[in-house]
Amino acid sequence: MSGLVIILSQALSGMITGEVLHLYALSLPALLTDIFLGTRAYKHLSDKGYRTLALAVVFLLGCMMIYRNI
User: Fold this and answer.
1) Which residue has the higher pLDDT, 45 or 62?
2) Strand stretches in 10-64, DSSP E
3) CA torsion sign, 41 to 44 to 47 to 52?
4) Does pTM surpass 0.85?
5) What residues contact residue 53 under an 8 Å CB cut-off, 6+ apart?
6) Rounded Cα–Cα distance for residues 13 and 65 (Å)
7) Rounded to whole angstroms, how far apart are CA atoms 9 and 6?
């Protein structure tokens, strides 16, 4: 319910534009693929192993962001 309220308030304030929807549509296949892969990984890893994997991915993404902005 809170997600719907957030989307509605963003739409009413003009934050959701055609460009935003276009970028969302472009990212949707990767998002769905990653949700699928994350669910499968969670089934095959221990809780600690999954947390370690998630932190490693977040760390790598952070490093990529820093590298791209140098």
Assistant:
1) 62
2) none
3) negative
4) no
5) 41, 45
6) 29
7) 5
Tokens linked to 36? 């699928």
Q: Is residue 16 within 8 Å of residue 8, measured between CB atoms?
A: no
Give the span between the Cα atoms of 37 and 56, in whole angstroms. 15
12-53 per-position pLDDT tens digit: 999 999 999 999 999 999 999 999 998 988 888 888 988 998
Packing angle of the helix pair 18-44, 47-68 (nearest 10 deg)? 140
pLDDT score, position 50: 87
Return the domain boundaries, the chain.
2-68
